[in-house]
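Can't paste images in this forum, so I'm doing it all in text. The chain is below; anyone willing to post the predicted structure tokens underneath?
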Amino acid sequence: IPTAGRSSTRGNIVGDSFYWAINRSMDATIGAEYFSQRGWSQRGDFRARPSDSSYINLDYFGVIDRGIGTPPLREGGQEARLSAEGNFYGFRAVSNVDYLSSFLFRLAFNEVFTQAVNSEVKSQLFLSKTINGFSFGGMVERYQNFFQTLNPNGTLSNPPTFDSIRVLHTPSADASSVDRPLWHSPFVWSFDASLAGLSRSEPGFRTAELLGRFDFNPEISLPLQFHGWSLRPALTLHDTYYTERYVNGVAVGKPTNREALETSVEVRPPVLEKVFDKEFLGRKWKHVIEPRVVYRLVTGVNDFANVLHFDERDILSNTHEVEYGFVTRLYSKRSSAGVQECDTPMTGLAVGAAAPEQTVPWQRVSNLENPPCSPGPQVREVATWEIDQKYFLDPTFGGALVTGQ
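Text version of the structure:
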């Protein structure tokens, strides 16, 4: 059905679109709108469900703008988003690609406020697989963050001009593991490793087109339990090798190796529990409080100022800190032990769970005629919240924080 309207910035608006049901698992929508004061826009959406565990969603929006003001400032552009997911041979592949031709175009024509003021453009493609407690993944990522440039006198330019910071992972490979027993001893071990090709550019600074980074973090710990108390001392070695370093504002092709030692102790006192005898909404309720204290010491990062920054792996610094807090949980259970509790699929938001439309907006929620269920009452975690505070004994993080920089 054609649409018509009026906008104070676009003038009279007339538009129409065409919907095509390609087959049972694929459709598309193509449309356009005419703006009497600006020009015209094009929209396109393509959706597909090749299987019950995969999907493809492609959105496009573009505007051919005649400009606004005198002389006319043209704010037209294009933005395209591709999101896809698939599972094959035990691998999970995900694509989340965002292309934006101009940040000024997003500011002028995006109809959602939170997206219009979002200066970041992220694109990721990754492949992952988990087997026997080991996780492996590969990723290609492009990160772009726009900012408005200033005039030589420090004022904002009018009309506005934008530049950007660009960070590339081309590509990166990661591996990690859960805690695993160390032979027949009470110790457990784990590791986290990454091998990445990186690049970063921004006004006045640029690294090589491709530099290497190898990061390896093995950990050994000793979980202990005594009369409800839990104690977990751990020792972690951080070793990161870069093929370039940061010296006096430029990236220099001299390798650097960052080595650090991390010691931590986690203490968990006995859990506090309260079961309420009085029923509410046909259920019995239980309140649980889980306190904890974590002491952490990192030493050995003496060249923080020479480390190039790409992601969270690069901001490791010396620290001396104590973290303390508690997690409180609220559980519910039907009081009758003989009742078979089988709830129908939820159509609204659940506490702690993502709504179906947040993952795949058009995915249909499964509604089996005879959904599987367990006999007897089922315990459900209704709400969880956490109160936490961290105290830093070293406010400069070993010299990583410098006043005025």
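Residues 103-109 form the longest helix (7 residues). The CA atoms of residues 241 and 257 lie 4 Å apart.
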